[in-house]
Amino acid sequence: MNYSIALLRGDGIGPEIVDSAVRVLEKVGEKFGHNFSFTPYLIGGAAIDATGAPLPQETVDGCKNSDSVLLGSVGGPKWDNLPGDKRPEKALLGIRSALGLFTNLRPAKLYPALAEACPLKESVAENGFDIMIVRELTGGIYFGDRGYREGKYGKEAYDTECYSRMEIERIARVAFETARKRSKKVASVDKANVLETSRLWRKVMHEIAEEYPDVELRDVLVDNAAMQLVRNPAQFDVIVTSNMFGDILSDEASQITGSIGMLPSASLNETTVGMYEPIHGSAPDIAGKGIANPIATILSAAMMLRYSFSLSEEADCIEKAVDSVLNDGLRTSDIAAIGAPSLSTDEMTDAVIARL
Ligand code: IPM
Ligand code: MN
Predict the structure, then answer these.
(1) Distance in Å, CA 245 to ligand 1 centroid
(2) Neighbour tally for 52: CB within 10 Å
(3) Are 267 and 242 in contact (CB under 8 A)?
(4) Is 117 within 8 Å of 335 (Cβ atoms)?
(5) What's phi and psi for 339, nearest 5 deg?
(6) N or C: more exposed end of the chain, with fewer CB within 10 A?
(7) Best mutation site among 55, 71, 80, 92 for ligand 1, i.e. most ligand atoms within 8 A of its Cβ?
(8) Of residues 30, 1, 27, 36, the one with CA closest to residue 276
(9) What is the pLDDT along the chain (356 residues), one digit of tens a residue?
């Protein structure tokens, strides 16, 4: 089969880690007889420098016309002082919105081989955990009305959180369907003791839950969820939450896996054209040094094979190769013990490819 993949390398370590994932995909293609073709498009700071805009129309069209999109990361200090709608991050929101990617799947699991990198107490880490965060990605405060206005204390800035019933229903269904394939438990995270959007969120979650009597639903307030994640992460299976809560909790979840450099994500709509990216950022401090951990992006490529192309055997093959690399004690610097030797981005990529 032929698959066309749009590459959004972006900024910082983005280009390095995307190239690692491309090398892995090429090897998978060779092994299983698929042809992956890659077309690069500009996004983020790189696009600002080249065209003046963070998300050129050509990039949007290119992504829409591809079978799938692989993204590195966007942003960096160079563009930090631009106004909000000209920042590299705006491109990320723009492409999510343009492709209608309302579902963001962020798996966070503790690899037994990395238990030592987990900052939690040994008695907690030894239980392991395997959580799937289902983050709503095209609504909420990220996309609500914002600006400046005259307030009680003079000029004030404001952002607004909005959720419609439809937006909550469709992400609820994704969460329940996901839970059906896992351990049939959903924790819906909200702030229903304060926010009206959360009260609607909670109500709709329970209505949709009736269609899934085999799945257990529980509500968790976001402050409590943040606490429970470090106290006893093994209690969670699927977590479904709003755009901003999902952003925050997924970073927290990644940190307890030992490194943010390990976590992939899939952003999906109703079609099979998805966008796949590591959840970490552009890490400008290590960009260009060749030491970034490529695993999150390599695992994102595996998610692409699974979710966009239904190539589950091929996806398993990548995930097993990553397991094996970790079990063999190979580490990039972010997951290496202090003072222990570590591999470069290319060496880690080669190690994964050798195990495919
Ligand atoms: C993420 C990032 C983005 C987000 C930023 C860069 C806009 O933090 O993908 O988690 O907040 O969604
Ligand atoms: Mn984030």
Answers:
(1) 11
(2) 9
(3) no
(4) yes
(5) 85, -10
(6) N
(7) 92
(8) 36
(9) 899 999 999 999 999 999 999 999 999 999 999 999 999 999 999 999 999 999 999 999 999 999 999 999 999 999 999 998 899 999 999 999 999 999 999 999 999 888 888 999 998 888 899 999 999 999 999 999 999 999 999 999 999 999 999 999 999 999 999 999 999 999 999 999 999 999 999 999 999 999 999 999 999 999 999 999 999 999 999 999 999 999 999 999 999 998 888 999 999 999 999 999 999 999 999 999 999 999 999 999 999 999 999 999 999 999 999 999 999 999 999 999 888 899 999 999 999 999 99
Ligand number, closest to the Cα atom of 92: 1
Q: What residues contact 254, with CB distance under 8 A and at least 6 apart?
A: 106, 108, 260, 262, 263, 279, 280
8 A C-beta contact, residue 298 and residue 23: no
Read off the amino acid at residue 66: S
State if residue 7 touches ligand 1 by the CB under 6 angstroms criterion.
no
Q: Is the CB of 89 under 6 A from ligand 1?
A: yes
The residue whose C-alpha atom lies closest to atom 5 belonging to ligand 1 is: 89
d(CA 267, CA 304): 10
Are the CB atoms for 37 and 5 separated by under 8 Å? yes
Ligand 1 centroid vs 249 CA: distance in angstroms?
12
Written as six digits, the tokens of 303 are 């998610």
CA 26 to chain centroid: 22
The model carries a pTM of: 0.95
Report the nearest atom of ligand 1 relative to the CA of 93.
Answer: 7
